[in-house]
Design goal:
heterotetramer, A alpha/beta, B mainly alpha, C mainly alpha, D alpha+beta, B: mainly alpha, 75% helix, D: six-stranded mixed beta sheet, 17 helices, 35% helix
């Protein structure tokens, strides 16, 4: 508890302010992200949860400005160590990508270039990130660049539990299992022990047993390298297992953010409550419950609080104006009018 | 509350469909070149439809010779000059447009009408029929289409219509192959399997569930094939295997003019240009439509 | 499946195809109109002589006998005697193929090189003015009826500009002063081998226009496909992942993207071999290039059945071989196909 | 040193390696590498370039001068076998082989001139002809020419019985009187001189041929006595006619030494080759380009008579053309002038009858049909087709540019009298095959280009119109007329003994035909040779179609 308190005084390693992303789609302009703010502190694991289409992945991708195409506009600020990632030149951004902010994705196999061996791709990145490391090894161990790279690669693969590096180097994406692929991706992402790792549904595609191991792996490695993780998932269960804090997203906004315990013990936002209800638990009396209705159309979203059409505690105010963030406790913010007076009182 | 939501959803879906079309239209209008192409095609098609009715010298367009005015360079009374028989080339081109344009349409549409059903069948029901059709397609595709067409129209005897048929014969397999590919990728999809669970008949599933979902690529292919089809017709009639004199046909006209290329060059070049322009127009138009209907495909 | 097995399979496939083709062609030509024997005699022949010729050609035998004979001969590489040139078809083919291959190879090579380059440029500068100009040029390039293009080139570069010769493979007087010794049949190679540089440059000079005529179409196809396939690839997850890993756009594009985009392009190159083969018919006729295309066209137009069979088989073979080569290339650059 | 030497040097260097190349022992690459190892390639390259440049300059000038020329020829080789040859290769055969006597061009004093014979006489009954032969003639292979050779040649031709061998049908046997005298014994009194002077099947070849067959000749071998020999005939694309040193005519005076024949089908390309000086002699230009070509100061066209003529057979076996009136009407509806203008650029004359202008048997007395639409309409009306209203199918040989050109004229003109014509351009062989099928469902009109095998009208009149029963070969009008058949045979048999009588009979026969009009005689072609202004001495002899006698030609 105290520890947490201490950390919160610390500077955030990633500070996202009023991030807005709009896509021009067939039917007009879809506001995928309508003002997302959150902070990521060193060494913490922040979960970003929400239904499919709530904008989790878009958030993750737009942080590093990875979504190509003229059909989107981005606004807001993303501070990474007092650099605004939306302001810096492409070159700088490129230097930050991977080296300082790593990223892993949902279906690892599709993320590995099919026409190169895993080795080739790993080596390339090592050469990219770890120039001085290589130089050091060449001096200390008097090995050729090639060997140096190989050694590093071997070591990194061992870290993620891929011991048979020889085979890995030679094999192609199509020849490794999902689990192995994801381990490989992790190894790649953590090569230069970045400050931040963005894990975008990193484990959702894997089956449960593998999932668990990968999660453990992630957690340990990041603890070891002081890497903060932005953990994006639709699975509250996983969030609960691994994360320090949880941010609940709904339709392009963060509706509630708090420490994991609080979210699960005392959820505030009606949507969060709904979600938690929906998680099936053994021995719960009233069978399956769900959040009625479906995620809103992003092209013309409901006015005011985007959740109000589905909200069972809806007030007429809700459809009129957008709720602010209301602090309901330590590190616990909710944007819902129910807690307006909390703020005052 | 549930109901309302669903109603709203349904409403939006319908609305979306309309919006979608409007959006696509807007997208198309953004392609300046495509719009231009479209108008060129429109004009040509009208010209082809009216044919002799708008040709300055209708009977010459249909082949009447006029020895006194032979080999005239483009001028006031003959905007595009006259050919070796003294026939007004503009009139010839207008009358010739029919063969090229409608011939082109005929080929691709006929090819699609044969190829698509076969493709559906072969793709959906594996086993003997599928295998046979696949082999057949492979055999046809293992040889340049126009050559096959040449061969056929030699046997069948030269003539505009035989040439068209001769071109359809090696053309349909391309559609079969396309459709087979599509079907194979779609048939494992939930909506198909669901339909199977529900015990619908093969044909029903093919027609009601698969066909609509593979229509777009077929349409795109048809559009993109029009240009090549017109060229193919030209290739045959240039060798005298297509339309017979004195009927006008662009490919044939180029051939008739080829002898005089060094002196009265316009006789060959003008119809050639007509062909080139129309084909380019079809290609650009097809590309644009493809970009819009299949934005995610190459 | 190992490469070797793959090639063997294709080879067997080829043999089957040739069997089918030759059978088809045989019965096809037998169904052609006109009197083979009369054609063979040529000129103003009298009926009696035609009867003689009919026996000489074995056309008096029943069809199945003719067929079995034909196949038996074919097995020994004997395609019969051309009704037009009255020389063994096989010999004719052997003499003429190199002349065409010379054109085809050069054209195909240039088309591929230019096509790839242009396509990549268009994709790299996607949406720029360059892209749109290239789009115009390429969609024009694929829209040329080959015969029209050939005539246009002649008109432009011979008649108006006078830069290139109108036709032929070499200036005729060179056939006395420095004739080409036939070694390989590829005139460029032969002239080099015999140090006959006059002829070499002369032939090269004569090649320019035919080659241009041949390469325009395939160039367009390849460029267009390269562009679209590259852009498609650049949308894929692994590119995204690599980008997220901080790989520079240039490397992403030319190293990660291009290599993946290549395999459909290779397929099209295989197909464009067929395109060029067909084009040679017209180009060689219009440029009076004494190659296989000219031979084939002459055979078609004069209903030279035996030659037709030979040509068909040859084209079938070339076509299959070309596509096999392309498939092998694809397997080499793209492990997924294995 | 002259350029020729350098190029021969090249060739010589190559010769050394020829053997190994021939038997494919070493691969090409080895040769290349060896070449590189043997000679210091670089400075040799410079050397060669200089040499070749010199070669070019000297050669081109040396070339344009004087005794060699390029012939851009559309006439391909069917066979080089003089006994069988009956096709376009005549152009060369007539320069390589010789006949006993030769028909003179029309208008010359004598009907014949002597070649390998020096005199002949006929027996009173016209059944025996004795030829005195020229002494001191050598065949290309060195064998001496004599009576045996004559007997051998004609017998061989008769024995093989292909090509135009039929002209010897009435020859019983050949008797060698002595070395330089030979006697032809006939079964019927046919005009042997004409036959012996035939453009086909009457060539004398060396007995050394023995039983060598067609294949041997088709490799490019020859065994003639003519001024030229066939050299380096590899593929059918180009070959050489090279001077035969010991030609009996001798080589003093102006002659051509070597003629390089470039097989060139397309008239457009011949035109370009002549204009660019790539060739000095051509044969066919694009129809519309003769005038401008002739005007050009470096080029000219030589015109002369020819026995080639175009005709249109009417199908006399099927209505409505089984009615002579209709046929006459159509004959009057044919636009002869336009055909001449458009199809031949004015270089032709309207044909009278079957016998081509200038040949024995063609006279003013043969009735000629004129283009007259009114008369045509009138005749149609009389025949019961007041304003036409029937449809005809006309076939022509697709290869023939002229026919392709003027067929539409007929069609367009017939439309004016209400007769629809469907034109079918077929490959000659197909057109002919269809023509020989059952008349009932054959074409209605058949365009044909015809020329006589030898210079007596009988062959033409017989082949084209005698009753061929139900196996038509050339009588594609399917015309039957016993009276006519008897008439021409009679004429044929008296040509030798009594030309006047036979002429009269031939005219009678022709007018008999004109009455029934089974065939519309379109045009007699004018022979033309487009060539370089420098080329001289070419005379056109219609008896030998498309033959330039190179021996008489020279370059200024």
């Amino acid at each position: 508890m105290e520890a947490m308190a201490v950390e919160n005084k610390r500077e955030p390693v990633l500070d996202v302010r009023n991030l807005e992303v709009t896509f021009n789609v067939a039917r007009g302009a879809a506001k995928i992200l309508a003002g997302v703010d959150f902070q990521l502190f060193p060494r913490e694991i922040l979960a970003l949860v929400g239904e499919t289409g709530s904008g989790k992945s878009v958030t993750a991708k737009s942080l590093l400005n990875l979504i190509p195409g003229a059909s989107k506009q981005t606004s807001g600020k993303v501070y990474f160590e007092d650099k605004d990632l939306f302001k810096v030149s492409n070159k700088e951004l490129q230097a930050i990508r991977g080296k300082h902010i790593g990223m892993i994705f949902q279906n690892p196999q599709a993320c590995i270039n099919p026409v190169f061996t895993l080795g080739e791709q790993l080596f390339r990145l090592i050469r990219l990130y770890l120039g001085d490391e290589i130089a050091r090894m060449k001096l200390s161990e008097g090995v050729s660049t090639k060997q140096a790279i190989q050694l590093i690669a071997k070591e990194k693969l061992n870290e993620v539990g891929l011991s048979d590096s020889k085979r890995i180097f030679k094999s192609y994406a199509s020849e490794v299992s999902g689990g192995m692929a994801q381990r490989f991706m992790i190894a790649q992402a953590l090569l230069s022990s970045p400050k931040i790792l963005i894990a975008d549904e990193a484990t959702s595609a894997l089956d449960v047993t593998v999932q668990a191991r990968i999660l453990k792996l992630l957690k340990d490695l990041c603890a070891k390298n002081d890497t903060a993780i932005l953990f994006i998932t639709h699975d509250l269960g996983i969030a609960a297992q691994v994360c320090d804090r949880v941010a609940v997203m709904y339709s392009g906004r963060i509706v509630e953010i708090a420490e994991t315990k609080k979210i699960f013990s005392a959820p505030c936002h009606p949507y969060t409550k709904g979600l938690l209800q929906a998680v099936p638990r053994p021995g719960r009396s009233n069978g399956l419950s769900f959040v009625p209705g479906m995620i809103p159309d992003l092209v013309d979203p409901p006015g005011g609080c985007r959740f109000h059409p589905r909200c069972n505690a809806r007030m007429e105010l809700c459809s009129k104006k957008r709720p602010e963030k209301y602090v309901v406790g330590e590190n616990h913010e909710v944007s819902c009018f129910l807690y307006e007076e909390n703020l005052r009182g | 509350m549930e109901k309302k939501a669903l109603k709203k959803l349904a409403a939006t879906v319908v609305a979306d469909h309309h919006k979608m079309r409007m959006y696509q239209l807007r997208q198309f209008l953004k392609h300046k070149s495509a719009v231009l192409a479209f108008f060129i095609l429109l004009i040509t098609i009208v010209a082809a439809l009216l044919g002799p009715n708008i040709a300055p010298y209708p009977e010459q367009g249909l082949g009447e010779v006029n020895v006194s005015e032979r080999l005239q360079a483009p001028s006031a009374q003959h905007y595009l000059g006259t050919d070796v028989y003294g026939r007004d080339i503009l009139s010839r081109i207008i009358c010739g447009a029919r063969v090229s344009l409608f011939g082109g349409f005929f080929i691709v549409i006929a090819a699609a009408l044969i190829g698509v059903p076969l493709g559906l069948w072969a793709g959906y029901s594996e086993g003997i029929p599928g295998a046979i059709i696949t082999r057949l397609v492979e055999l046809f595709l293992s040889f340049p289409s126009v050559l096959i067409a040449m061969a056929i129209s030699i046997v069948a005897g030269a003539g505009a219509f035989t040439a068209l048929l001769a071109l359809v014969i090696p053309w349909w397999p391309w559609y079969t192959r396309l459709v087979m590919g599509e079907v194979l990728s779609k048939k494992r999809m939930l909506y198909v399997e669901a339909a199977q669970m529900l015990g619908y008949g093969k044909v029903y599933i093919m027609v009601r569930h698969l066909l609509p979902n593979i229509l777009t690529p077929v349409i795109v292919m048809i559009l993109l094939d029009l240009g090549p089809a017109i060229i193919a017709i030209g290739l045959l009639s240039f060798l005298g295997l297509g339309t017979q004199a004195p009927q006008a046909d662009w490919g044939l006209m180029v051939w008739e003019g080829a002898q005089n290329i060094l002196s009265e060059w316009w006789i060959a070049i003008v119809p050639g240009c007509a062909m080139f322009i129309v084909v380019t127009a079809f290609n650009i138009f097809g590309d644009a439509v493809k970009d819009i209907l299949e934005p995610n495909r190459s | 499946m190992s490469l070797f097995v793959f090639i063997c399979k294709r080879f067997l496939g080829l043999i089957v195809l040739l069997l089918v083709l030759s059978t088809l062609v045989f019965f096809f030509t037998r169904s052609l109109p006109g009197d083979v024997a009369a054609l063979y005699i040529g000129g103003n022949a009298k009926p009696e002589q035609i009867e003689l010729a009919r026996i000489e050609l074995g056309l008096d035998k029943p069809l199945h006998v003719q067929y079995s004979r034909y196949m038996a001969k074919l097995a020994h590489g004997d395609m019969g005697v051309s009704l037009r040139t009255h020389r063994p078809v096989f010999q004719d083919l052997l003499e003429k193929i190199p002349m065409s291959l010379e054109l085809v190879f050069i054209a195909l090579f240039l088309a591929t090189a230019l096509g790839l380059f242009t396509g990549v440029m268009a994709a790299w500068y996607q949406g720029s003015w360059l892209d749109s100009t290239i789009k115009w040029i390429t969609s024009g390039a694929v829209s040329f009826p080959i015969f029209f293009l050939a005539l246009l080139l002649q008109l432009l570069f011979f008649n108006w500009l006078g830069w290139f010769p109108l036709q032929g493979r070499i200036d005729t007087f060179l056939e006395f002063t420095s004739p080409i010794e036939r070694i390989t049949g590829f005139s460029l190679i032969d002239t080099l081998l015999t140090g006959n540089f006059t002829a070499f440059f002369n032939v090269a000079y004569h090649m320019v226009l035919p080659v241009i005529a041949l390469l325009v179409g395939p160039f367009g196809m390849i460029a267009r496909l390269t562009r679209s396939s590259l852009l498609e690839v650049m949308q894929l997850d692994y590119i995204l992942a690599a980008r997220a890993a901080g790989v520079s756009e240039r490397v992403l594009f030319f190293h990660y993207g291009l290599r993946n985009a290549l395999s459909p392009v290779l397929t099209v190159i295989g197909l464009s071999v067929a395109l060029i083969l067909l084009a040679t018919f017209y180009v060689e006729m219009i440029f009076n290039w004494p190659g296989i295309g000219y031979y084939a066209l002459a055979a078609i137009l004069s209903l030279d059945y035996t030659a037709l069979m030979g040509v068909t088989l040859m084209i079938g073979t070339v076509y299959v071989v070309a596509n096999t080569v392309m498939d092998i290339a694809r397997r080499l650059i793209d492990p997924r196909i294995k | 040193m002259s350029g020729d030497m350098s190029s021969t040097a090249n060739r010589h260097r190559y010769k050394e390696k020829e053997a190994e190349i021939e038997n494919r022992v070493r691969s090409v690459t080895i040769i290349v590498t060896r070449k590189f190892m043997e000679e210091k390639m670089l400075n040799r390259f410079v050397q060669v370039v200089l040499l070749t440049l010199m070669t070019l300059m000297i050669a081109t000038s040396a070339w344009a001068a004087e005794k060699n020329m390029v012939f851009a020829s559309p006439y391909g080789i069917t066979t080089f076998d003089p006994s069988i040859s009956y096709s376009t290769e005549l152009t060369y055969m007539a320069n390589v082989y010789e006949t006993l006597i030769k028909v003179n061009p029309p208008g010359s004093k004598e009907l014949f001139s002597y070649v390998l014979a020096t005199a002949y006489n006929a027996s009173a009954d016209g059944l025996e002809y004795t030829f005195k032969l020229r002494k001191g003639v050598k065949f290309h292979d060195g064998t001496a020419f004599n009576a045996e050779a004559v007997k051998f040649s004609i017998d061989r031709t008769k024995k093989i019985g292909k090509g135009a061998a039929f002209i010897w049908a009435d020859l019983k046997e050949i008797e060698v009187v002595d070395d330089y005298t030979v006697k032809f014994i006939l079964g019927k009194p046919v005009p042997l001189p004409q036959i012996a002077a035939s453009a086909y099947a009457s060539y004398i070849m060396s007995p050394s041929v023995g039983d060598k067959d067609k294949e041997w000749f088709d490799k490019g071998n020859d065994a003639g006595t003519g001024p030229y020999q066939i050299k380096n005939f590899k593929d059918g694309e180009s070959w050489m006619l090279a001077k035969f040193e010991d030609y009996w005519g001798g080589w003093d005076g102006k002659h051509l030494d070597n003629i390089l024949v470039k097989y060139t089908k397309e008239s457009l390309i011949q035109l370009q080759m002549l204009q660019a000086g790539q060739a000095m002699l051509g044969a066919r230009l694009p129809i519309d380009s003769y005038d401008s070509f002739d005007k050009n100061k470096d080029t000219k066209v030589i015109y002369g008579p020819s026995y080639q003529n175009y005709m249109a057979f009417f199908n006399t076996k099927r209505p409505p053309l089984d009615n002579a009136k209709v046929r006459k009407a159509l004959a009057h509806a044919i636009p002869y002038e336009d055909i001449i203008t458009l199809g031949f650029n004015g270089m032709a004359t309207q044909a009278r009858g079957p016998v081509p202008n200038g040949q024995f048997g063609a006279t003013e007395d043969v009735v000629q049909y004129k283009h007259d639409l009114e008369l045509a309409k009138k005749l149609l009306a009389e025949a019961g087709y007041p304003n036409g209203g029937f449809k005809l199918i006309l076939t022509y040989a697709a290869e023939n540019a002229q026919e392709a050109r003027f067929a539409p004229l007929i069609q367009s003109e017939f439309k004016k009298i209400g007769v629809d014509v469907e034109i079918k351009g077929l490959v000659w062989n197909t057109q002919w095959a269809k023509g020989k099928e059952d008349p009932k469902n054959a074409q209605d009109m058949f365009l044909l280009l015809w020329w006589p095998t030898y210079s007596d009208p009988y062959e033409t009149l017989f082949s084209l119109l005698h009753d061929e029963g139900d196996k038509p070969a050339w009588n594609l009008a399917y015309y039957k007329n016993q009276a006519y058949d008897k008439l021409i045979r009679e004429a044929y048999e008296v040509t030798g003994s009594n030309p006047e009588k036979s002429l009269g009979l031939y005219v009678k026969a022709q007018n008999m035909i004109q009455e029934d009009m089974p065939v519309a005689w379109l045009v007699d072609v004018v022979g033309k040779w487009p060539m370089s202004e420098k080329l001289q001495g070419l005379t056109i002899n219609p008896a030998y179609p498309n033959v330039p006698f190179f021996y008489d030609m020279f370059i200024e």
